[in-house]
TrEMBL record:
InterPro entries: HNH, HNH_nuc. Transmembrane segments: none annotated. It holds the Pfam family HNH. It comes from the Bacteria. It comes from Stutzerimonas degradans. Residues 47-100 form the HNH nuclease domain. This is HNH nuclease domain-containing protein. SMART domains: HNHc.
Length: 122
């Protein structure tokens, strides 16, 4: 039993370590991307915001609660600090408070997909 627990602990350590390594690599790539091709953000198009609202069924992409006009932000899945731009597949609607509490966190899967998309268009 002790061996099994030790093995589980080592597997968890390895998993954490490889995740951290992957994330560090992604951050490095996003910095390089920012240097060679910084995202330029243009103002929102009303129809894009309306389409997002419809596709999200009027629900916040972070907490799933109903959105209202007075409390709604365009949230970037990959934040500007990681080089994220205003591409349609990088934005979603969220409550202002949900967007603020998320700050500059990023899902590594979103970041990887985003970097791949940007890379294909460099
Ligand atoms: Zn919310």
């Amino acid at each position: 039993m002790a061996d099994l627990r030790d093995l589980q602990r080592r597997a968890a350590d390895l998993e954490r370590e490889s995740f951290n390594n992957l994330f560090a690599l992604l951050v490095e790539c996003s910095q390089i991307l920012k240097d060679i091709a910084p995202a330029r953000r243009r103002p929102w198009l009303l129809n894009v915001v309306q389409e997002l609202y419809k596709s999200q069924n009027g629900l916040c992409s972070i907490c799933n609660g109903p959105l209202s006009l007075g409390d709604m932000d365009v949230d970037h899945k990959v934040p500007f600090s990681y080089g994220g731009g205003n591409e349609r597949n990088n934005i979603q609607l969220a409550h202002s408070s949900c967007n603020r509490s998320k700050q500059a966190q990023v899902d590594p899967h979103d970041l990887l997909r985003y970097l791949e998309d940007r890379y294909m268009n460099l």
